[in-house]
Design a protein that fits this description.
- The chain is of the alpha/beta class and 123 residues long.
- The protein has a single domain (4-121), classed as Response regulator (Rossmann fold, 3-Layer(aba) Sandwich).
- Helix content is 45%, strand content 20%.
- The chain contains five helices and five strands; from the N terminus they run E-H-E-H-E-H-E-H-E-H.
- It has helices at residues 12-24, 35-44, 61-69, 88-98, 110-121; strands at residues 4-8, 28-32, 49-53, 76-81, 102-105.
- The protein has a five-stranded parallel beta sheet with strand order 2-1-3-4-5, with helices on both faces.
- Strand 4, helix 4 and strand 5 form a beta-alpha-beta unit.
- Helix 2 (35-44) runs parallel beside helix 3 (61-69).
- The longest helix has 13 residues, at 12-24.
- The chain is globular and about 40 Å long.
Length: 123
């Protein structure tokens, strides 16, 4: 059975690139344009893994992580960030503290993304 991955990323080109990379590796990858859209999709469907950006409009990645962790069967989560007001490592440390399974600093290599997804999902 295909592992389902939701990619929550406000940058359309990056979101579509991640979907393409993961789809080519045999995952079912679906996108969401911001945290609000991502939370809605995650509550309506089961995902084995959610990859969320941290800095996004409407609902940021930290809020997404907090909400996902509170669910009955929380999905595995990878947080991604290129930084902003504070550095990417600071945002990603917060994400890890909240319960993320892994983090990636943008820009990241395709192989690094795929390896983390496979390791977390045990594929």
């Amino acid at each position: 059975m295909l592992k389902r991955i939701l990619i929550i990323e406000d940058n359309r080109i990056l979101r579509e690139t991640i979907i393409e990379i993961l789809s080519s590796e045999g995952f079912e990858a679906i996108g969401a344009e911001d945290g609000r859209d991502g939370l809605k999709k995650s509550l309506q469907n089961h995902f084995d893994l959610i990859i969320t950006d941290i800095l996004m409009p409407n609902t940021d990645g930290i809020e997404v992580i907090v909400e996902l962790i509170k669910t009955k069967n929380p999905p595995k989560i990878i947080a991604i960030s290129g930084g902003g007001f504070i550095s990417a490592p600071d945002y990603l440390n917060i994400a890890r503290t909240l319960g993320c399974n892994a983090t990636l600093t943008k820009p990241f290599e395709n192989d690094e993304l795929v390896a983390k997804c496979k390791a977390i999902l045990g594929t």
